[in-house]
Amino acid sequence: MIEANLEELAVSAKARIEAATTVEELEAVRVEVLGRKGALANVSKEMAKMTPEQRATVGKLLNAAKQALESVFDEKKTAFDSAALSARLESEWVDLTAPAPDPARGALHPLTQIQTEIEDLFVSLGFTVLDGPEVESDEHNFDALNIPADHPARDMQDTFWLEGNWLLRTHTSPVQVRGMRKLGPPLRMIAPGRVFRNEEVDASHEHTFYQLEGMMVDKDVSVAHLLYFMKTLLSGIFKRDVMVRLRPGYFPFVEPGFELDIQCLICGGSGCPVCKQSGWVELLPCGLVHPNVLRKSGIDPEEYGGFAFGLGLTRLVMMRYAIDDIRQLQGGDLRFLRQF
Ligand code: PHE
Question: Does domain 110-337 have CATH number 3.30.1380.10?
Answer without folding.
Answer: no
